[in-house]
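Lab manual, section 2.4: Encoding a predicted structure.

Procedure: take the sequence of the chain (355 residues), apply the prediction step described in section 2.3, and record the output as structure tokens. A sample record is shown.
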Amino acid sequence: MLQEALFRWGRIAVLLVLAVCLFPFGTRAEAAARHTLNYFQTSEVTVNGRNALRIEIGMTGSSDLDYAVTEYEGVRRQLAVTVQKTQIGEIEPNIPLPEKYASRMRIKDRGSDTLQFVMDLAQPVSGSYAIHEEKAERRSHKPHRLVIDIFEPVVRAPQAEGAKGHTIVLDPGHGGSDSGAVGPSGVTEASVTLAVSEKVKNLLEASGANVIMTRDADVDVCGPNASADAELQARVNVGAAAPGAEIFISIHCNAFSSSSAHGTEAYYYTYGGTAAEHLATVLNEEIVAATGLSNRGVKTANFYVMKHAPMPASLVELAFVTNDREESLLADDTFQETLAKAIARAIGRYFTEGE
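Recorded output:
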């Protein structure tokens, strides 16, 4: 009888062990649970009186999500939402978004059933978003989803108040038949200088300044078959013809045979006087402070547009388009905006501080 009882209990013990192995309970079952993305939608909504871009990321399952939020402030302002126990499913990993809110969202697989949603925002990250979960809605055929609201950027007065009432000539370097320097991946100097100049113009005009552009499109100022001197003189002529024009700023990208060359610098004409030197100095200081680029300094040169402009003039070399990293920065809309704000601040300083 004893042997029979022991045998019976032994069989029960073996069955219990098998049950635990085959049918786990508690935290082990919870750890195995996961979601798979199966829905993505964006819409413009109003949240507490603020316009926002609503991003809805739907998935299988109904349990609460385990997610964490990280903010990255810098040249590229990013919001990253990391979600555990989740797989990407059939959702596209790179999704464009409306530019006024964010340029794109990328879904990155971090391994171990962990996904990260990374959004490049159009404004500083802190305070510009809200995140919550929504349960599945049968009537609208929406699954359980993570909802990210990105608020429309608040229009703030630019830091160029000192420019109010003044007239500034902006000269986007090159253009038309002359692309200027070309970077390793094909970014042209002419496209960057025009984009940055247009942003500077918008900032200055918002501050009450009057802005004259030597070109506002990808064109030659004088004409496609004109000589180099004639093209440069045509730019000077635009400035000279502008009523009340007080300063002339020519915007360029640097280039060198070695891709290791990097940094920013500003020039003034050797005999341009203290006003031109002051203009170049504040431009250099503000660009370095805003971008963190290597400071190549303030220098003198006999560049045509500086020498012949009938007003204080400076030529700025924003960064090296022939440097891989700086080419990427120069092509980035957010970095262009950073450069533009720095130039606008410098112009405000110039008029506020005097010579």
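Check your result against the sample. The mean pLDDT is 88.
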